[in-house]
Fold:
Amino acid sequence: MIPLNIYVQSVEKNFWIYNFVASFIYFAINGFDALSNFILFPLAIMLIIYILKERLRSTADTQFLGFYPLGKDFGKLVIALIMNYVIWQVSGLLFFVALVYLLWKEYH
Structure:
């Protein structure tokens, strides 16, 4: 298991670009409301993937979390769009829960 700070540094630059662009599109669709969701969506996605892969050692499929890397399959794109829009709507709560979980695991 790698520490969170090392994991954040190892995340590819394209991950951040793709997810912030997607977050901005959702932000525009939402009428430019919910600035916190715009900012926290990529962070929430990164924390969820980190918890699933590094902390829980889960074999859960994370291919639809976020938009990088995503193949050129139209069906996968539609599923990712819908699923990530729902995640975008609750990204503040997901970020908070993931952060509390990581802090709780770190100190207990």
